[in-house]
Amino acid sequence: MNFLDGSLIPEYQDKLVITAAPYGPEWIPSDFPEDIPVTMEEQIQKAVDCYNAGASVLHLHVRELDGRGSKRLSMFNELIAGVRKAVPDMVIQVGGSISFAPETDGASAKWLKDDTRHMLAELDPKPDQVTVTVNTVQMNIVEQMEMADLAGTSIAEPQTYQAYREMIVPSGPGFIEEHIKRLSAAGIQSAFQFYNINSYETVERLIRRGVYKGPLVMNWVAIGGGMDAPNIYNLANFLRAIPDGSMLTVESSMRNVLPINMMGIAMGLHVRCGIEDNLWNQSRTAKMTTVEQIEQLVRISREFGREIANGKEAREILKIGVFYDTIDETLAANGFSPNRKPAKPGLADLAA
């Protein structure tokens, strides 16, 4: 991604797309009862509140009435339908983990089997996006957290802490290719979750081979624990690799969320916030609801002079519903150089 003269001036940047992650499947309701919706009506209203605050993308997980993260696709269908009716312009992004929260105290935090995850392509009504993890990797979400971040929460309990410390994201080549194909066939955009340069390069190769023919929409997930650490060097290294036609959202955890988002706002990137990522204000004197986090980013972005994208504008920026016919078209639309062509013999070769 190139930063030409004027790149930091807001009129040369897209409006800011804010992704809200308000469902926080890793927490239980007692961790933040003021902001963890449990009933279906509450979960739909949470989406409405986030949209009204300025978020145009909803990162969606679902809870059962007992407060645990749901793994029932029927519940996902119900919530998607409710959000579609309540805020039809909001971009719905289903979390591809299908809720990685442990089902019982001390149980492992893990993804479901590949066949179950593939069923996300069959959701009805269909979401706009499904997040796609790329390459199997350690996802130790607590590595970059401080114990004070977790004090008084369920994750501070030794068994639960250990479960999240040992969590693995399973995403091998066979799963990735099949999952992308199914999502694309259903008209659902793959929202790639990139943890480092390696996972990005894997998707570039898939594009160059024609496995994925759509817009390159992605998150840089800087949470440590097997993924990039949240610092400017890792972000700059990642930005140097990605093409100009791509759309990048920055994502981090706990009190790293706000500074990483401020960098993203300044550089014309896009941002994510919510209790799935962070519970606290920057002084850790109080918890912040997802809506409060969105409102904070809206204020900061407008101080930068950068306006906020509404749902329709976000759909255009993200190119929701857009797919390409050929490899060459996909490469060109995303700002990649074309694939290499077979070498042609030169005059010297012909003469010989």
UniProtKB/TrEMBL annotation:
It comes from the Bacteria. The keyword Repressor does not apply. Signal peptide: none annotated. Its cofactor is Zn(2+). Gene3D superfamilies: Aldolase class I. Keywords: Metal-binding, Transferase, Zinc. GO terms for molecular function: 3-keto-5-aminohexanoate cleavage activity; metal ion binding. Pfam families: BKACE. InterPro entries: Aldolase_TIM, BKACE. This is Transposase. It comes from Dyella jiangningensis.
